[in-house]
Amino acid sequence: MKEKLVVIGNGMAGMRTVDELMQLAPERYEITVFGAEPHGNYNRIMLTPLLFGAKSIDDIMIHDFAWYRRNRITLHCGEEKSVVSVDRIKRRVTARDGTSADYDRLLIATGSLPLMLDIPGRDMEGVMGFRDIADVQAMIEKSQTKQHAVILGGGLLGLEAANGLMQRGMQVTVVNRAGHLLNRQLDGQAAGFLQRQLEDKGIEFRLGVTVAEVLGRDGHIGKVRLSDNSLLPADILVMATGIQPNIGLSQAMGLTCERGIIVDDHLQTSDDRVYAVGECVQHRGELFGLVAPVYEQAKVCARQLAGRASGGYRSLLSATMLKVTGIDLFSVGDFEGGADCQQQLLVDHAEGVYRKIVIKDNIITGMIMYGDTSDSGWYLNLIKNRTNIAAIRDRLIFSPVELAA
After folding, report:
1. Which residues belong to any copy of the FAD/NAD(P)-binding domain (predicted)?
2. Degrees (nearest 5) of the Cα angle 296, 300, 301?
């Protein structure tokens, strides 16, 4: 008799876990998946090429509907199929339309929600997040008849939205509270390179300010007032100000939650029949927003569900490898450094290349690469292995060199 596994969340984290589980124990579970979107599992990272027209929805599908049928997985998807309650005593989940499923094991992979700031006027039509296919479709539709887009947030998501809407023919202004772009991934100098290149493409920037109020008429946005009291025309306002773990259902179930759902090293929640993975979880105080750690969690969780318990999940040093509007970026570790650190810089304005290495006690503690990231793997290994670089210190910034055995 097969056990019943129910998965709440049809995104990349939950379905990667199912993928891994089916490699390990294909006959162990009868699997039912509930997803809030009316699609199969798709690659959320590819929403940007979908926005500017380089990809179609079919192109970004990881598992289409046929895949679920082939693998005898029951998929309930769409807003009415969103799970609204879980009875942990009866071990039953129930969706908005009354669809229910019993479980022996439950996997929660509800992901995250866009952080929609509480700005006066934010409920007007034209104010949106950038999180799913529906958001992208709404942006494309607006871009066909409207002219002015304001993006709130100068992080990766904001810059990708800005580039996509610009390529759709809109006039785009990015508003960012911080004094420079990508302030979590870049220092001021590298961010300056990026800003100039994006300005050359036609994107405008307002830094060190935020949106204070959304103005419009007949319920539709028309302008935004910034915190310095200036006005910008705005037919769309895209809030790209971050994400927050989607934990409402887990809180209602009575699972232990702080900022995310608390999980142990085996991705088990406070209920030993319930597991959780992805952007909704909190592990050893840490939240997650990048694909690499989430996929690692999926592996560990799948081994647990398959009854092949092995080493637990350990958060690894996460490097950020980005391609912003065709510009390559790489950053890892502490790239600012303190008074007890040394810095090596390579700046080539003509080639648009910037490289910064932060060193402490002959160990690289952080690094930024801008424009040319072809050697990033070599540097990342030095950082992860805490390699002593004393012997190659004078050549370190230029390119990989052999370390004496």
Report:
1. 4-292
2. 110
**% of the chain surpassing 70 pLDDT:** 98
pLDDT tops 90 at residue 305: yes
Residue type, 2: K
127-239: CATH superfamily: FAD/NAD(P)-binding domain (3.50.50.60)
Distances (CA, A) of 138 to 48, 74, 148, 325: 13, 29, 15, 21
pLDDT of res. 405: 45
Residue 248 has pLDDT above 80, yes or no: yes
41 C-beta neighbours (distance < 10 Å), count: 26
Q: What homologous superfamily is domain 3-113+243-305 in, according to CATH?
A: FAD/NAD(P)-binding domain (3.50.50.60)
- Number of Cβ within a 10 Å radius of residue 319: 18
Render the burial of 106-115: b for 16+ CB within 10 Å, e for the rest. bbbbbbbbbe
Q: How far is CA 88 from CA 30, 234, 272, in A?
A: 19, 47, 11
Rounded CA-CA distance 187/288 in Å is: 22
Where do the structural domains in the chain lie, given as residue ranges? 3-113+243-305, 127-239, 320-392
Render pLDDT for 339-363 as a digit per residue (tens, 0 to 9): 999 999 999 988 889 999 999 999 9
Question: Rounded CA gap, 249 and 108, in Å?
Answer: 9
By residue count, the chain amounts to: 405
Q: In the numeric block, which tokens belong to residue 52?
A: 């500017």
CATH architecture of 320-392: 2-Layer Sandwich (3.30)
Listed residue (181, 193, 195, 190) closest to 331, CA to CA: 190
